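stuck on whats below:

***
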Amino acid sequence: MKKYFPLLQNQPDLVYLDNAATTQLPQVVIDRLDHYAKYEHANIHRGLYDLSAANTALYEATRQVVKDFLAADDSYETIFNQGTTFGLNWAAVGLKHLLTDKDAILIGRDSHHSNIVPWQQIAQETRAKLAFIPINDQGQIDRTELARLLPEATVIALSHVSNVTG
């Protein structure tokens, strides 16, 4: 896979695990972004002129590709944003009005800082309980502890892959 990423080609010994903060771009993405910036750059969903309409069509086509890839029921189940940290903050703030002191938020002990801080803030504001699910020696969620905590959980925010455990 490293052959597709210029940064990793130039630093062959680098093992990059900080994708929650900044993900490295493969050359094909760099090329596409360069083309867009040079020849297509315009707002989506905001203009009646041809370039804006063309970008809106591309954006919505991308939403359909993601829907199909994730086997989602509707393309609007996918929300695009500028990154993991923004998305987690957005989700936390969006759920805040639903939480009270009777609720519990579960996050993995191996969570990236971007998945800890927003939930800490929301728990403090709403007085919801914040619990960390421990990880075992193999870097996996402790399923026994998860089963114990799960019945009281209102929100569960877990990483698919952790930059803490690799």
